[in-house]
Write a structure and sequence with these properties.
One of its GO terms (biological process) is methylation. This protein has 361 residues and is an alpha/beta fold. The chain has ten helices and 14 strands. The chain has two domains: 59 residues, DNA polymerase, domain 1 (Orthogonal Bundle); 275 residues, TIM Barrel (Alpha-Beta Barrel). Bound molecules: iron/sulfur cluster.
Length: 361
């Protein structure tokens, strides 16, 4: 028996091509897309906006899988405003899984989505990098992480809705840029039941220069967060191997371009690591780098990862670091770590103990 194709692996453009091949009018592609991501149809027969014959043909040639939540864990330390950060193990269309995190804060429900199963970039501080790389997620699998968490919020309290999405989970989003852009388009489609403003979406990267320019030129105007962690080229390369091909002077140019094209300042994310990147000289180097374009700096704590030996900076060194940046006139925020007790904080996502037996890898 032939293996049927996953219809959700088709982009909007590919759906249009399919309808052309079927001899159907182009608007049918939009109808199918709406059935999948707004009406959330789970079988072809419930796509009642389509003709019976089209529904039958689709069901003969395609399957329509869905992601599902396989496991939930609440952060026992609680979160801001008393709500706990929650980590989900989400099963993908082919049985593989990724982690997704819900981060509550006053007036906000932020979902951190994964874009790859594992990651090929192997940053020294990151648990995901130790998993190796299996595959990119398709746009549907990225969108469904958000919709699943949103469903759960709505179930628990009729009013709550995801307010923000950050592409900061497992994987480097800019290595899967086409699917990330497709997912952004679906999540921001104003005609769909669930939709967000583009300004509520942040894409994070370790700094892949050509892809930063491509995202800027895409016109999506989402926020960009750069994991910098050091403004010294040599130090940065020891933490982020891909930095060797994306050097700081050219990176500053790409970030400047992004800010000018989108009109939004880039966020520089800097994880303070004791005796590695937390000296006054490190802060001065960061200030020199940050002055070259429109940005704000977000300092975060290191979250312990099994088998990776870094230490979080102490209070005194952190205060000196912050004051040095403030004295240089930079905008600095300090992000409190959330979700570290369940390995849901920055750099901690990795699948170690999967409960079910149906995983493929
Ligand atoms: S920090 Fe991001 S890019 Fe680096 S290994 Fe982890 S997931 Fe990949």
């Amino acid at each position: 028996m032939p293996v049927l194709e996953n219809i959700k692996s088709l982009s909007r453009k590919e759906l249009q091509n399919l309808m052309h091949d079927y001899g159907e009018p182009p608007f049918r592609a939009g109808q199918i897309h709406r059935c999948l991501y707004s009406d959330r149809c789970t079988d072809f027969q419930s796509m009642t906006t389509l003709s019976t014959s089209l529904r039958s043909r689709l069901s003969e040639e395609f399957v329509l899988p869905a992601c599902s939540i396989e496991q939930r864990q609440n952060d026992r330390t609680g979160g801001e405003g008393g709500e706990a950060t929650r980590k989900y193990l989400v099963q993908l269309h082919d049985g593989l899984a990724v982690e997704t995190v819900l981060i509550p804060s006053p007036g906000r429900w932020t979902v951190c989505v994964s874009t790859q199963v594992g990651c090929p970039l192997q940053c020294a501080f990151c648990a995901t990098g130790t998993m190796g790389f299996t595959r990119n997620l398709n746009a549907a699998e990225i969108v469904e992480q958000v919709l699943l968490v949103n469903d759960e919020l709505a179930e628990n309290s009729g009013k709550r809705q995801v307010t923000n999405v950050v592409f900061m989970g497992m994987g480097e989003p800019l290595l899967n840029l086409d699917q990330v852009i497709e997912a952004i388009d679906t999540l921001t489609c104003e005609q769909y039941r669930f939709h967000l403003s583009r300004h509520k979406i942040t894409v994070s990267t370790v700094g892949l220069i050509p892809a930063i320019a491509k995202l800027a030129d895409s016109g999506r105007n989402v926020k960009l967060a750069l994991s910098l962690h050091s403004a010294d080229q040599g130090k940065r390369e020891t933490m982020i191997p891909s930095a060797a091909d994306n050097r700081l002077p050219e990176l500053a140019g790409a970030l400047d371009y992004y800010g000018r094209i989108t009109g939004t300042p880039v966020t520089l994310v800097y994880m303070l690591l004791e005796d590695i990147n937390d000296s006054r000289d490190d802060a001065l180097q960061l200030a020199r780098f940050a002055r070259r374009f429109l940005c704000k700096i977000n300092l975060i704590d290191y979250n312990a990862i099994v088998n990776i030996k870094f230490k979080s900076t102490g209070n005194q060194r952190r205060d000196t670091f912050i004051q040095t940046l403030l004295d240089k006139g930079l905008q600095v925020t300090v992000r409190r770590s959330q979700g570290s007790s369940i390995s849901a904080a920055c750099g901690q996502l990795a699948i170690r103990n999967r409960p079910s037996s149906n995983q493929n890898a």
